[in-house]
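Narrative of activities, Objective 1.

The group set out to show that a structural description can be obtained from nothing but a protein's sequence at a throughput compatible with the screening campaign. Below is one input-output pair from the validation batch, recorded exactly as produced.
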Amino acid sequence: SETVRHALKQSDRAAKRSTLSLRQVDQLLHDLTGVGKEDDQFALLSKVWQRCTAQDAKWITRIIDHDLKVN
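Output recorded for this entry:
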C-alpha cells in the first residue's frame, strides 16, 4: 500500500484533493467483487486512482489487501 501511495504521488496522476466519498469507495469495492477479469478490475481501479489522493489510494489498497487475506 505504501508502494501504491508513492507511485501515485510520483506520477502526477494523484488528485491534489480527494473527490471520493465513502459511498463511492464502497461502490468500488462492490463493483470489484463483480468482475472476474484482471483487466476489468484494473479499469475500475484506474478510474478511481484519477480521483483520489496518494493517501486515499494507500488506504483503498489496504482495504482491498485486507479483504483478500480474510477471504
